[in-house]
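Supplementary Methods. Inverse-folding protocol.

Structures were first reduced to a discrete structure-token string of length 96. This string, shown here, constituted the complete conditioning input.
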């Protein structure tokens, strides 16, 4: 959490969005899916405020992660227990 606070204080939108993406991965691994989505949403807002040329790629990456978490939430948990491969694939996407 300290890293996140330092990044916010630095007013560096690129670092802020990257830190929030990482935080989202941690929340996802802890099965806190709402917090994972909130962090990705905040990351998307931060990267949208960045005017650099790389922000477009970052925006696309974050949107893919948002879609993956939403789809994961919509999936029946009983099915996921039978097919843990889906959980692993989404988790791997979040870590990239």
């Amino acid at each position: 959490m300290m890293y996140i606070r330092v990044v916010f204080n630095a007013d560096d939108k690129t670092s802020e969005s990257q830190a929030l993406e990482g935080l989202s991965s941690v929340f996802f691994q802890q099965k806190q899916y709402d917090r994972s989505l909130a962090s990705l949403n905040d990351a998307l807002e931060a990267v949208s405020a960045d005017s650099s040329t790389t922000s477009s790629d970052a925006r696309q990456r974050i949107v893919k992660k948002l879609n993956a978490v939403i789809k994961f939430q919509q999936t029946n948990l009983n099915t996921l227990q039978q097919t843990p491969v889906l959980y692993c694939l989404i988790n791997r996407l979040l870590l990239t």
